[in-house]
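S.,

Sequence below, as promised.
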Amino acid sequence: MKIKSIIINIFIAVIAALVAVIAYAKIAGPVTEVITYREDRPTWFTNLPDDFEADKFDFTYAAEKTVHGVVHVKVTSMRRQPQFQQRRQDPLHEWFFGPRQEREPEPVTGFGSGVIISEDGYIVTNYHVIENATAVEVVLNDRRSYEASIVGSDPNSDIALLKVEAEGLRYIEFGDSDDLRLGQWVLAVGNPMNLTSTVTAGIVSARGRTVGIFSNRDMPIESFIQTDAAVNRGNSGGALVNLRGELVGIPTLIMSPTGAFAGNSFAVPVSIVKKVVDDIIEFGEVQRAVLGIRMQELSSDLAREKGIDRLEGVYVDSILVNSAAEEAGLKEGDVILRIDNVTVNSPSELQEQVARYRPNDKINILVNRNNRTQQITATLRNLEGHTEIVRPQEAYLGARFREVPRDIRRELNIRGGVQITDLGPGKFMEAGMRETFIITSINNRPVNSPADIREILDGHTGGVLVEGVYPDGTVAYYALGL
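The prediction came back faster than expected:
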């Protein structure tokens, strides 16, 4: 009996224990076991490839590679009046106070940045950095200083080319701005606020951006790379580089309500920069090719109105007479989809592609006409409608001209004249002329066309007296030596 009683008690105890364990499990829930691994485990990033490296965004290589290829550009210009100036003024003012007194020219110093692009001293910067410069000094990252000459400039793209007499300089190689992708990291290298050798980082925010900053130019080229890399006064003309340390753009401007960086900066893409530089070195000025169309973005409303089934490309509003587009057979209402296999979806993107070519170059254009694609080949022309390369006969003058419009002639009461539309380094700038000046005579001979200037100055040596008037009525005389 005792043994049987013991067995029964043990059985009851086991059953009670099992019931207690089950009840505890129900009340306390499952037990989580924490296991710690000592060895390193591979890490995977969501939506990134397995071979992605966590330290891929190290900027030190690009910064160290490029900082020595960016220079500090110091510019001296003269704030001056024409040599002999006669302003239409109140006769009573002249009677009581006498004629207006000329002020002495005042030197003004400006600062910017530049990019060394060759070991023998070619340097790219912005045109607005050296505009009206009488002297340019370039300071390297190692503090060596050189006097720089202005080889040439292109106001339409805001690019200028300098040259210093030096050898073995560390330079930045050209990259490919076409390869840039939205969100890609880039570095801005320059001298903001006179803080030399400054590197900032950001991403590509947009491409093919137009902001209208060059709208007063004859043929503005705007297709900016937009980034959020910090850029301030003094960065202009510096370098925008990729993480391989290759030049992909020239920081040119910011958009800000205060004048300080506000999250948006804009750079000229290197595809345009390289073309401008090559032209200046080879020909002395930029050989600008044009297609000869008026265009606009293809919006959904426009596509619906015109019955266009593809919402892509650039809509052709009209074709200019005697243009490359007219000769090639482009028509009003065509939608340009590609230029030489490069997709274009905005006027600025199309403009950027055409700006890479010279007059007489052929381009292949894919168009959507009546909702069918068609391939067209066009031979580009210059602004005058010619295919020949123009070698500047007045390069030493540093100016471009146009005939004066009739309404301006009537307002100023002049019969003819030639107006300066673009003014760069040369004899006219040295004499103190400014853009918009209207030349009415040279050495007392009337000037009615740019050809008259060539005829009068061709083979002339010695002194020259240039007479003219500014659009505000200011009459001016300039003396220059040839």
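The first strand starts at residue 70 and ends at 79.

Coffee later?
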